[in-house]
Specification:
Length: 203
């Protein structure tokens, strides 16, 4: 059984509908004491990093998520949910993250853009991936749907499994042991995104 973490900061219905379209039942779960009952956990997220961490804190989910990460069961962070897996973010001030993956979250640096582009990065873009079970049976470069202003800076190169170019190259997918994160929204990315979720189901 897959649980989708409900901390009032994610597009839960579209994620659950995506799993349903794949014939997989999922549960929207707001009780952190029940996380350990599930085979897989999805941490979605839309909004600001600091607000999200405060919502997780208020709902006493921080330790439960960290413990789940240590359990060896698979967890997938989507968009802001991926960013929350990291140690910190400077979005509207300095905020501590879950610290499950080493690195930090920074805004797009427009001074490094190779051409004038709008921020947030919104729309379809290619993700160039390393060989990883999450991208099984997908091309090494495929299109997914993005909506974000901040991106992660990974401390460990080995944790990076996907990159995207928007003004410059940035990390758009990560994996550290049983923990994975993806910056674009697979639930909004049609067949490529559904394939990623299907691969996650199969892990």
């Amino acid at each position: 059984m897959i649980a989708i973490v409900d901390y009032n900061m994610g597009n839960l219905a579209s994620v659950q509908n995506a799993f349903s379209s794949l014939g997989k039942e999922s549960v929207v779960e707001s009780d952190p004491s029940k996380f350990k009952q599930y085979d897989k956990l999805v941490l979605p997220g839309v909004g600001a990093f600091g607000d999200a961490m405060e919502h997780l804190r208020e709902r006493e989910m921080l330790d439960a998520l960290r413990e789940y990460a240590k359990s060896g069961k698979h967890m997938l962070g989507i968009c802001l949910g991926m960013q929350l897996l990291f140690e910190s973010s400077d979005e509207f001030g300095e905020h501590q993250g879950l610290g499950i993956i080493k690195g930090k979250v920074k805004a797009f640096d427009r001074s490094k853009f190779s051409e004038p582009l709008k921020v947030p990065h919104m729309g379809w873009n290619r993700i160039f991936t390393k060989k990883h079970p999450l991208f099984e049976n997908l091309d090494d470069a495929h299109y997914l749907y993005f909506v974000h202003t901040y991106h992660v800076l990974c401390d460990n190169e080995a944790d990076i499994i996907g990159r995207t170019n928007y003004g410059y190259e940035f990390t758009s997918a990560v994996a550290h042991d049983n923990i994975m994160g993806i910056q674009p929204h697979p639930e909004k990315s049609h067949k490529n995104g559904l394939k990623i979720l299907e691969n996650f189901i199969g892990l």
